[in-house]
């Protein structure tokens, strides 16, 4: 079972997994294979009282460390002392006190006497286009611009600004395997609709973890196979859109059981041959 893999980055992806585990029957079928410490922090488990109660004995030793953080996630809290409503109020105040975020037309940029370009690069109301970006190409804060969800970063736009885009990659400490993934640059934008053309051109500059986790990727079987060496294999099982579009025939437990049983049998034979 892949959840036995000791990988901090994968543990994070499993906690936010929206595809597994699906049901009590699913957990029970592979009961001896789960890492219960990870299950205790999984969003699906935490948000389902029936599952929590049914597997209370296995999960309870780990709830103390996982329950509060997971409940915060399920309720939309940010893990700090602020409530979700307070966080919204803070964001609303930030919006109201920064006029750059309120610009809705490009001529407002031209008329402004002073501009905080870092703030303007976050603007989600402007009619973003190649022309607008080109006009002020040396003024934008490119790390902020690259994670702006309102900009449609398609192949044409990315190719045109390839040398301006922030291709910042997560830093991995090889000794501790600690991974830092600052929310800056194109690699942290999970709203890009990656396709074959874009990945053929830019995959060597992308972070497999974030790209694999993207819900906006135009998933299809051809894309999955063509870049099979690029994808992060630990993240693929947790991408709900991938399962819904490419593996929709496995949305029912019985069909998925057949697939997993075959995989586990194969893994078991391989392990037997090793020992």
Name some characteristics of this structure:
single chain; 275 residues; mainly alpha; two-stranded antiparallel sheet; 2 strands; 49% helix; 2% strand; elongated; disordered N terminus
The SS-based structural class is mainly alpha
Number of continuous helical runs: 17
Strand order of the largest sheet: 1-2
Order of helices and strands: HHHHHHHHHHHHEEHHHHH
CA-CA gap between termini: 18 Å
The amount of helix comes to 40-55%
Please report which band the strand proportion falls in: under 5%, 5-15%, 15-25%, 25-35%, 35-45% or over 45%: under 5%
Question: How many whole angstroms does the radius of gyration measure?
Answer: 22 Å
Point out poorly predicted stretches: 1-14, 73-81, 176-180
Main beta-sheet strand count, sense and barrel state: 2 strands, antiparallel
| Spatial shape | elongated
Instruction: Please count the beta strands (DSSP E, at least 2 residues each).
Output: 2
- Look at the structure and give the mean pLDDT: 77
